[in-house]
């Protein structure tokens, strides 16, 4: 078995669930997966699941810092429409204009969330997850 390695972009300070860090703490590029599993007190499939979770977290974190594409802005508008109705497109356009060159996914969603009630934020987040935006 080959030795697992940290995903590109993962750093010591990256916020991950404890169950993932419990595995990543033992990943050093030298130990094979069975040794990592033994040290973490888990099965090999559990370790593989945590390694996949770490990679997925990093992929999402990287996505949050990317600039907003037209396609992504449209998907955000569609999700927001399910929350606030036809004003969603205007809200998204205004936020993107306000953010200018700093319009990342994270900044855009944060700015939109500030305009919503907590209940609507939860619905918006659920719709974003369902459409694969976050």
UniProtKB/TrEMBL annotation:
Residues 73-116 form the DUF8082 domain. InterPro entries: DUF8082 (IPR058395). It holds the Pfam family DUF8082. This is DUF8082 domain-containing protein.
């Amino acid at each position: 078995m080959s030795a697992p390695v940290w995903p590109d972009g993962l750093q010591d300070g990256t916020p991950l669930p404890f169950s993932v860090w419990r595995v990543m703490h033992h990943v050093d590029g030298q130990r094979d997966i069975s040794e990592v599993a033994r040290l973490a007190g888990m099965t090999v499939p559990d370790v593989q699941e945590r390694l996949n979770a770490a990679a997925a977290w990093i992929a999402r974190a990287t996505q949050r810092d990317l600039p907003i594409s037209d396609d992504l802005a449209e998907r955000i508008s569609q999700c927001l429409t399910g929350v606030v109705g036809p004003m969603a497109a205007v809200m998204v356009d205004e936020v993107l204009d306000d953010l200018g060159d700093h319009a990342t996914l994270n900044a855009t969603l944060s700015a939109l969330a500030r305009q919503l009630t907590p209940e609507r934020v939860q619905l918006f987040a659920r719709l974003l997850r369902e459409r694969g935006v976050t």
